[in-house]
Each structure stands twice: as structure tokens, then as C-alpha cells.
Amino acid sequence: MSNKEVKAALKSARDAIRNKEYKEALKHCKAVLKQEKNNYNAWVFIGLAAAELEQPDQAKGAYKKAIELEPNQLLAWQGLANLYEKPNQTDVKGDLADVYQKLLELYESGDKQKWCDVCNKLVELYHQEKKYLEVAETWQKLIRMKQEEGAEKTELHQLWKKMIQLLEDSTRNQDNKTGQLLLTAFEHALHSADTIPGEDHQSLYEDFIQCLSKFPHEVTRLERACQDMMALYPTMSYPLEVLCLHFVQSGTLSEEALHCFSRLLEMDANNGPGIIGFGIKCLKENKYKEAVKSLTEGLQKTNQCPAAWYYLAEAQMKIHEHRNAVLSCNQALEALGTPEGPNFQWKNLALQLKAETLIKIADADAAEEAIEALEQIVDGSSDPVVLALRGQAYLKKGLMDQASKISQELLLSHPHLAEAHALEGFIHYSQKNYEQAEKSFLNAIERKAGIAEYHQYLGLTYWFMGDETKKDKGKALTQFLKAAKLDSYLGSAFCYLGNYYRDIAGDKSRARGCYKKAFELDETDEESGTAAVNLSVELGDMDTALSILNEVTEKARPGTAKWAWLHRGLYYLRTGQPSQAVADLQAALRADPKDSNCWESLGEAYLNRGSYSTALKSFRKASELNPGLVYSIYRAAALEQILGKYENAIATYQEILKKTENYVPALKGLGECYLMLARSALDNYFDRK
After folding, report:
1. Average model confidence (pLDDT) for the chain?
2. Is the pLDDT confidence value at 568 over 70?
3. 544 within a domain of the structure (yes/no)
4. Percent of the chain at pLDDT above 90?
5. DSSP state of 175
6. Coiled-coil intervals in this record (predicted)?
7. Distance between CA 538 and CA 145 in Å, rounded?
8. Domain membership of residue 673 as a residue range
9. Percent of the chain scored above 70 by pLDDT?
10. Last residue of a domain, one of 39, 62, 94
């Protein structure tokens, strides 16, 4: 076949393809290839015809052969791209990307429009595959090309915005290079906006700041962006909010941070991040109650701030609201999720604070939960303070051997650690080894003098020491005073001071003040509440006693605060108000239905009210619960006597006299009953009875 015939055959093949006679085209091409097996156009036409005849493998082979022959010719590459773009072609996206790359190379010096079209297709392909770095780099090439062609500022602005849209999902799984390209796109888009300041520009700035806040290492850039936006939009609170939350999360409380908190609250007094910032400021200034109030309020408005939950827990811990502090730690841990990077530090802090708080609750279940929290701390096994906490948790759970083992190991490895000596002191104190406990607590205080708990336990150690030389309670007083001074919210220290002033110094007035303070700090402290009421009564200050009791009973849930109901009931009984006494004593019995003394007092209240049958039942219940209550048995007999049940009364009196021969009220009652029976017999003419 001559050259002329080859050209004619190729022309026939082209015409056949144009007329959709693909089999005919294949015949002409095969004829050409018999003559010229390396004919580029023949292979391209075979690729085209085979693709249309749904023979993708043959088409691909033909195009690849053509490319092999002429790697820098466009036709075969275009054909291969069209083939791979067909919907029935699967698993070829990687190959298609390579084809697009080659087409970009071939179009670069020629048809710019086609280059842009292929570039768009390549970006779309990378985006489907979530190859964000390739998306960013390819789109940047497109923007560079447009810049070289002198594109308008508005067109470039739209291209940068499009790049932001393409990369917005990439922040979830961000590599640093893609992140930098996204941030660069934001900066270019901001600078190329038509109207500055303007609504679109403002919205774009917010998106930029939100994006920056997801990059922990871009702190300086974030701060600068917030400052720049505040300068452009001084009435907008958003950049200030982000900056405030950034300062909260970073754990720094610089002058700049305080200025931001104040400025935000001036702008909007109800702003969540601003209120949180103010709460943290209060915490650092030791204004713990104000801190709890502000942080609680701020978190109701901005709840996804793990650091703020941690600070709230810390403030609650300082005022000994231990159960609330545990809940706040749980909220912090929930908000952190599975943290990485700097957040892992917050998780460790929250877990450690949770464990400390649970140890203060001091029951076996809380101790078990504390151990679980400590086990989750990353590298906790190498942290001596965490190990000391674990020792305390074991001690609270009653696992003395494990606690002692940790204590011994810590004293060997960290002899200068206050917590190690304190743990040893707690162990000795729990075993009543007071002399050894004294040495341990003194060692702990020498290393850390500002811990109220160490002084309190040293005071208790002196209080319970049995040695003659240690009987001077003045040493205990000194330590309790130090504990109360170091921690003005430590209710138990004020309770121990009350014990000292009442039992040792005999100063009832000062003791009452201490008990009252202890009870104000911890309303669950029945010992202090009871002592404050009793001393108020002894001092003739019934108003104070009643105000304490009224406050407790008003807040009490049904079945709680037995001591307060009982004390107020007895007060009403003494002051001739039997109906009120009955109501309060019934409330006390709801809290503890097996208290025989309470039943006895209730019987007395019913008796004073004139409810004899109910009084009788109450006295009988008291004597059932405690057969040793002679007074209740006597009162039951006396009521039977009043109700005219003389024979029952006689039997009860005789029962009392079997146990207590000379119990005068029973003897008197027995005589009266016999007399009444005799009178009854005479009235009925039973003379001989």
C-alpha cells in the first residue's frame, strides 16, 4: 500500500467515524496498520472506534500504543481522557489524574482555555478522592495562570473563595501544608474583596478566624487576625469572643487576656465567653464563690469550652462542693472527647482533679472511681503526685497494703515530695499510730506549708494522742487555726475548733461561733449544726437556734435532716406547742423510723395535745424498738390507766416493777389502779372485791 493509499484509508476511517460506522473505520485502520504498524493516527482512530463499540480494553490498548509512538501528541491523550471519563469506567481515577496532568503540560504553551478546563476537571477529581493537598496545589496553578493573563481582581477574588470552599472539609484531617495553603487562600480572598469593610468581607473574616482557631500552632496568626478584624469592625463581638475562648483554652491569664474579657463584657454584659473570662479572673483572685457563679452562667451560654468546665470544677473544689466538682470534671472530659495535641494536657488535668475530688468524698465507691480516673492519665504511672493520689484512693477504699507499698516506694524515690510524706501520715493516722503520723505530717508541712489539710490532720493527730506529754490540746488548736486560715471554706477545721473551745477552753460563745461557721460552710455537717443549736439553747439564744433549724427544715427533702426536725420538735414540746412538735417529730421519724427516743418524744407530744390513743401507740412503738426504755413503758401504762384500761395498766406496771423494784411512778400507778378497780367494784355492789 502506497503513501497515497494509506492517506486515503485514514480519510475513509475518519469519515466512517464521523458517520458512526465504527466497524468500517476499524477495517480501514487495520488495513493501514498492515502496511505501517506504527501509524499514530491509525492507532488513535482504533481507540476512538473501539471506545464507541464498548470495547474499552481494546480502546485503551490502542491509545497507549499511540502515546508510546508519539508521547507529546495531543490526540491520543485526549482520547484516553474521554475513555476514562465514561461512566462505565471504574477504578481508573488515578490513571485519569495522570492523563489530565499530561494534558496540562501539553496545553500550557498553547490553548489556555483548554488548559483551564482540564485544570478544573483535575481539581474536581482530586476533590472527590479527598486529596486536598493536590486540590490546593492544582488550584493555585490555575490562579497563577489567571494572574499571568492579567485577570481582574474580582475574578481572582472568586477563585480564592472557590479554593476555600474546596478545602473547607480538609480541616478535619489536616496536614500542615494543606492547612497553610487554605489559610493563604483566606488571606488572598480577604485582601482582594471589592468592599472593605463590607458584609461579605465580614463574613469571610469570621470564617477565616474560625478556621484559624482549629490550628493549635497558629496562635500568633489567630491573635493578629482577631485584632485586625476588631480594628475594621469595632462593634462586632465575634473576634473578641474567639480571642477570649483562645485565652481560656490556652490557660494563660495575661493583661491582654484580662483586657479582652473586660472589653467583651462592656460590649455585651451577657456574653458567654466574657462571663467565663470574668469567672476565671475571680478564681485567680481567690474569689471562689463569684467564680462558681460566673463560670456556671457563662457555660450555660457557651457550653463547648472544656477548659472552662475544668476551671469551674477547680472553683467548686476550693469551696468543697465536691460532688458538683466531679460533675464539672465529667463535663470537661466529655467536651474534650478523644483529645490530641495540647488538649491531651487538659484531659490529664481534668482526670487528676476528678480523682482528688472523689478522694475528698471519702467513700469506697468514690475511691474506686478515683482509681479508674487516675488509670486514664497519660504517663500517670511516672508522675509521683498522681501515684500519691492513687495511694490515698487505695487507703479510702481500705486497701492498706497497696497504699503502704506506694508510700514506701515514693519515700525512697522522691524523699523531698510533700505528698509522699502526707500519704505516709494518712496511713499512720488511720492506724492510730499518732507519733509516726506526727513526724510524717511535720515533714509534709516542712516541704509544703500552705496545705490546710496537712495542718488539720496534724491537729487531729495531737487531739487523739494518748501519751501524757501530748495531752496539751494547745498544739491541736494551733494547727486547726492554721488550717482554717489557709482554707476559709474548710468546714471541718471550724468544727474541730468548736470542739476545742467547747470541751477544753469552756468558751461556749466562741465554740458556738465556730460550729455555726462550720455548718454554714457544709450544711450536711449534722455534728456542727446540732452543736450550734445546743449551745445557742444553753446560751439562752433561742432565736439563733431556731433560725438555724428553720433554715435547714425549709430546704430539707422528705426523709432527710432528721436532727433538725428532732431538735425543733423538742423545742416546741418544751415551749408548750404540742401540735407543731407532733409535725416535726413525724418528719424526723420519716428520716429514721427506728429511733426509739424519737417515738418516745412523739408520744409525749401527743399526750400534751390530748391525743391519748395515738400517744399510747407511740410509747408502745418506742418500747418495742428499745425494751430498756422504762419511761416509755411507764407512759404506756399511765395512758392505759387514763383510758380506764386498769387491768392492762396493772400488768404493765408489774412488768416495770419486775425489772426496777423501787420505780416510784410505777408503784404509785399500780396503787391507783387497784384503788380504781376497788371503787368500780363497790359502785357495782361487788363488796367482797
Report:
1. 87
2. yes
3. no
4. 36
5. -
6. 3-39
7. 95
8. 627-688
9. 96
10. 94
Rg (CA), the chain: 44
Residue 615 lies in a domain: no
The DSSP symbol for 302 reads -
CATH code, 76 = 1.25.40.10
Query: Do residues 463 and 476 lie in contact, with contact meaning Cβ atoms separated by under 8 Å?
Result: yes
Residue 498 contacts residue 480 (beta carbons within 8 Å) = no
pLDDT tens per residue, range 21-65: 888 888 889 888 888 888 888 898 889 998 888 888 888 898 888
Please name the amino acid found at residue 274: G
* Separation CA 190–CA 180 (nearest Å): 15
Asked whether residue 79 is domain-assigned, the answer is yes
- Is residue 377 a contact partner of residue 351, using CB atoms and an 8 Å limit? yes
Rounded-to-integer distance, Cα 500 and Cα 674, Å:
55
Tell me which residue of 626, 559, 556, 567 sits closest to 593, measured CA to CA: 559
- At 253, the pLDDT band (50, 70, 90 cuts) reads confident
User: In 272-398, where does DSSP find H-type helix?
Assistant: 272-284, 288-301, 306-318, 322-336, 343-361, 364-375, 384-396
431 belongs to a structural domain: no
The total number of structural domains that make up the chain:
2
Q: How far apart are CA 424 and CA 403, in angstroms?
A: 9
Sole residue written with cell 463535663 = 331
SS3 447: helix
- Single-letter code of the amino acid located at 54: E
Q: In whole angstroms, what separates CA 684 from the centre of its chain?
A: 83
> Residues 6 or more apart from 50 whose CB is under 8 A from it?
22, 26, 56, 58, 59, 62
At 301, which amino acid appears?
K
> What is the amino acid identity at position 109?
S
Q: Which residue, of 39, 67, 94, is where some domain finishes?
A: 94
Cα 332 to Cα 98, 214, 303, 373, distances in angstroms: 48, 18, 10, 13
Q: How many helices (H) and strands (E) does the chain have?
A: 37, 0
Query: pTM (2 decimals)?
Result: 0.75
Q: Which residues contact 631 (CB under 8 A, 6 or more apart)?
A: 600
Grid coordinates given for 394: 487505695
pLDDT at 622 over 70: yes
SS3 of 603-664: HHHHHHHCCHHHHHHHHHHHHHHCCCCHHHHHHHHHHHHHCCCHHHHHHHHHHHHHHCCCCH
- Are 278 and 317 in contact by the 8 Å Cβ rule? The answer is no
